[in-house]
Specification:
heterodimer, B: 226 residues, mainly alpha, 8 helices
Chain lengths: 236, 226
């Protein structure tokens, strides 16, 4: 009966690894603040408000990374039926919601002085807001299904459908006029950002990716621990 | 007629027959849609906002809410007496089962829409008779896609706690593209704009239908089979 149970130290090793990674990322985040505020030139027209860019864009990057990986892991889960994929998708969705919250709160703080309004129904804003809702729905579905196998199948279906919904939402809101700044780094021609600003942005993106990995690993380890506890409860 | 089409029709006919005998879910969905229209009437200031500016949105929000209530019943009726297990034991391909359920849902949602439309014309005093074929066409085009997603989600939602809450939370984001497209096309229709102005939206709606009907049909196995 004990053969199936993972060794008790196992989930906690994953958690510890995740926490260590997150700690490194948080130190990195402090460094990003420092570089952004002290060593990066102030943008001529937007002034200090532009500094939020170094948090907002990497947070958006991590959120989109998280949600894309939920979609891919969901697709692979329905194919391979590997519980690790389901656990990863759940962890990634939770962390993605946290990053979206950072993106959706830092955006308006910047938009108020620059655009003169907290919120506007622009294509990209609407899209990210709906991504946020979509994954809140994903997580509430997970919380409402009791059977683990059923939960994994249901949430994989929602993950896949959600991934396909994104281009449709983008297309339908894009047909309205868009106000969001156009891409300045990932675009066909060379990045139009001054090199100092680009460097800060890249450092911040690396830090946010690291933070994503740290948080997902931690969450994955906690899920493992939960499952081990559940198994132990059933075994006794 | 291929046998899977016959099976789908048989399942849809079973659902419609059962609903016509009890009439509870359909009637409450219809009353609900009518109430939404009435509430909308009091939610605007008629001296400030012209009815024609608001009409397409009112119509589509009512359709969406009515559809949501109508779709909740698709699998909740199968829940009683474990009827779904019996249905799954029947030698019916899962795809045919899904299409059958989808057709029945389309009939219910279509019925709600068909009753809402005259009430909308009556309450909001919009004359849409010349544009009626166009409005019915875009209604059908927009409805198919989100009812497909609603059908698969209602199959999941009945297996969860708070099923009635779960369906709207999951489904509403998926209603956004069809709803935006339908409102845009409807307002252009009511303003007698040329077809070329609606073409992009119509293509979006058709593409949405194709993608989600196909995807939900394929994914249905993952929802019902252990």
């Amino acid at each position: 009966m004990n053969a199936r149970l993972p060794a008790p130290g196992d989930p906690f090793r994953v958690v510890r690894r995740g926490l260590a990674l997150s700690a490194v990322a948080f130190v990195g985040l402090a460094v990003v603040y420092l570089i952004a505020l002290a060593y990066t030139p102030v943008e001529a027209r937007q002034g200090l408000a532009q500094k939020i860019f170094y948090i907002h864009v990497p947070a958006a990057w991590s959120a989109l990374l998280a949600f894309s990986l939920v979609g891919i892991a969901s697709l692979m889960y329905l194919w391979l039926h590997d519980t690790r994929l389901d656990r990863f998708a759940a962890a990634s969705a939770e962390v993605g919601v946290a990053f979206s919250a950072v993106m959706l709160t830092s955006g308006p703080i910047w938009a108020k002085p620059i655009w003169g309004t907290w919120w506007t129904w622009d294509a990209r804003l609407t899209l990210t807001l709906f991504l946020f809702f979509l994954f809140i729905g994903y997580l509430s579905l997970r919380a409402a299904v009791h059977d683990p196998a059923e939960r994994a199948r249901f949430s994989a279906v929602v993950g896949i459908l959600g991934m396909l919904l994104v281009p449709f939402i983008h297309l339908s809101v894009y047909l309205f006029r868009t106000l969001h700044p156009q891409p300045i780094v990932l675009k066909p021609s060379a990045p139009s950002l001054p090199p100092e600003m680009l460097r800060t942005l890249l450092v911040s993106t690396v830090v946010f990716t690291l933070l994503y990995l740290g948080l997902v690993t931690t969450r994955y380890g906690i899920a493992l621990a939960d499952e081990a506890q559940e198994d132990a409860r059933h075994a006794t | 007629m291929p046998s899977s089409v016959r099976l789908s029709l048989a399942i849809a006919a079973k659902d419609i027959r059962a609903e016509l005998r009890s009439r509870t879910a359909l009637l409450s969905a219809l009353v609900f849609a009518a109430l939404v229209l009435v509430v909308f009437n009091f939610a605007r200031d008629p001296t400030v906002i012209a009815v024609s500016d608001l009409a397409p949105s009112v119509l589509w929000v009512t359709f969406a809410l009515g559809a949501m209530v109508a779709m909740n019943r698709a699998f909740s009726v199968e829940r009683e007496n474990s009827a779904l297990d019996g249905l799954l034991l029947a030698p019916v391909p899962r795809e045919a089962l899904f299409i059958g359920k989808l057709l029945a849902n389309l009939a219910f949602v279509g019925a709600v829409e068909l009753v809402t439309l005259p009430l909308f014309i009556l309450f909001f005093n919009v004359s849409i008779w010349p544009q009626l074929p166009g409005v019915l066409g875009v209604t059908a085009l927009a409805t198919v896609g989100f009812v497909a997603v609603g059908t698969i989600f209602s199959a999941m939602a009945v297996r969860t706690r708070f099923a009635e809450l779960m369906l709207p939370v999951l489904l509403l984001p998926f209603m956004v593209p069809p709803l935006i497209g339908a409102v845009q096309v409807t307002s252009r229709l009511l303003a007698d704009r040329p077809l070329s102005e609606m073409w992009g939206w119509l293509r979006l709606l058709a593409f949405y239908d194709v993608v989600f009907v196909t995807l939900c049909t394929l994914a249905f196995t993952a929802v019902v089979d252990e």
